[in-house]
Design goal:
Blueprint (H helix, E strand, L loop, with lengths): L1 H12 L1 H17 L5 H25 L4 H10 L5 H4 L1 H28 L12 H6 L3 H29 L4 H9 L5 H6 L3 H35 L4 H29 L3
Helix pairs in contact: 1-4, 1-12, 2-3, 2-12, 3-6, 3-12, 6-8, 6-9, 8-9, 8-12, 11-12
Amino acid sequence: MKEVFKYTFSAIADIQKFLFVTIILSILNLIEPFPFIGITAIGIEKLFLLSIGVFLIYIAKRSKNADEFYENLKMNSFGSFMFHFIPVAAGILLGGILILTFWTMFFVLILQFTNSLYILANPHGIFISIAHAPVITQILLGFYSIYFIFFSYIFLGKLGEALSKENFKDAFIAITTSLIDFRFWISTFNLKYFLIYIIWSLIIIILYSTLSFTYIFIIFPAILNNPNLFLIIIPVLAAITVILSYFTFFSAYFAYKTTGN
């Protein structure tokens, strides 16, 4: 796990590239609230971040340690990923969309099978609706939740595998096979992988929960009173997103390396 933090801090230490990514992300975040073009901006944002991730892992694969990674990162401009790594990022993004579609359809099928589709009528009170749903619905959704948590465990390593690929096809296959790659599933049951996953998930959950709470109860009311604060808060949130993205990329990559694939 030390390597994950070392490489993450090394990537952030290249201030020029870090600021470049933060600025681009801030601009895209400012566009996202607008109708029509907002959806395009969200897609570009995900593709952009994944391209950065592929670029960082490409450099990490060719570095012996974090110090060498930092030196190699400084010598390679982000311009090199603009065209070369976008196909890989597109493969990861498309695979991710298909997997999200699978989990959504799986959830809907469970509700349809148990005649509980009415639960979707009130998305804000979905947990209350599930608590009052038939027992069979609760049991199947319980299995669904367990499987989803297990899948998130597998998916971290599969993301690392996809980030280490160098073409659209391999990246797409690496992501989508996370649903059926039983050999890979078995290889993830090692202590190093488990520790990386636990630490990564705890940090992500704690930080995003804290950010959500802060935004709802502190930042948003402050913006309502002073709209100009929005222009200051967006870059800060973008910088935090970049840091957490870097941390996720390296967690995924080093988790994948522990599987021996």
